[in-house]
Write a structure and sequence with these properties.
With 154 residues, the chain is an alpha+beta fold. It is 31% helix and 36% strand. It has a single domain, classed as Pnp Oxidase, Chain A (Roll), CATH 2.30.110.10. It has a seven-stranded antiparallel sheet, with helices on both faces. Helix 4 packs across helix 5. 23% of the residues are buried.
Length: 154
C-alpha cells in the first residue's frame, strides 16, 4: 500500500501547472533577529521559467535575502480538507538588479495578474519598476499535496 504522502503528491507536470496558475506566493525569509519574515507576493517567471517576484530594493525581504539567501515559498488553495492543494518551494533567492531582467519579471507579474500587455501597461510597469529589484527563486526542493486525489476519504 503506497504511503498517504506519496499518494497526494503532485506530479512534475501538476506542480508546473499549479505554479503557472494565478495565485499568491507566500515568501519566507529570515529576519535580522532570526525569526521568519513572511509576506504574500504576486509572482511571475524569468525567461528560463524560474519563479520570480519583484519588490522595492530597500524592502525588508531584500535586506533579509542579502544577508541570508535561503527562502521558502508556499502556494496553497482549497477551503475544505478534501480540496486542499499546495506547493512548497525551498531554495535560494538570487537578487537581480539588471534593469532588463527586473523589467521582464515586472512584465511577467503584470501580465499574470492584470491581463494584456499594452503601451499603457509598459509605462505603468516602467514607473513601478524604477526602485525595484527582482528575485529569482532557485528551487532546490519541491513538496506538494493534492487532497483531491484522496477521492473524498481521509
Amino acid at each position: 500500500m503506497p504511503s498517504r504522502r506519496r499518494s497526494i503528491a503532485m506530479t512534475s507536470d501538476e506542480v508546473d501547472a499549479y505554479l503557472h496558475g494565478r495565485r499568491t506566493m507566500n515568501i519566507a525569509s529570515i529576519g535580522p533577529d532570526g525569526r521568519v519574515h513572511l509576506v504574500a507576493m504576486w509572482y511571475g517567471f524569468t525567461h528560463d521559467d524560474a519563479p520570480a517576484f519583484w519588490t522595492y530594493g530597500r524592502s525588508q525581504k531584500i535586506l533579509n535575502l542579502q544577508r541570508d539567501p535561503r527562502v521558502t515559498c508556499l502556494l496553497e488553495s482549497g477551503e475544505e480538507y478534501a480540496q486542499l492543494r499546495g506547493v512548497e518551494l525551498v531554495g535560494t533567492a538570487t537578487i537581480l538588479e539588471d534593469r532588463d531582467e527586473v523589467m521582464a519579471i515586472g512584465r511577467s507579474v503584470f501580465e499574470r495578474y492584470n491581463g494584456e500587455w499594452s503601451e499603457g501597461a509598459a509605462a505603468a510597469v516602467a514607473t513601478m519598476g524604477a526602485k525595484r529589484v527582482a528575485v529569482r527563486i532557485d528551487v532546490e526542493k519541491v513538496v506538494s499535496w493534492d487532497h483531491t486525489k484522496l477521492g473524498g476519504t481521509y
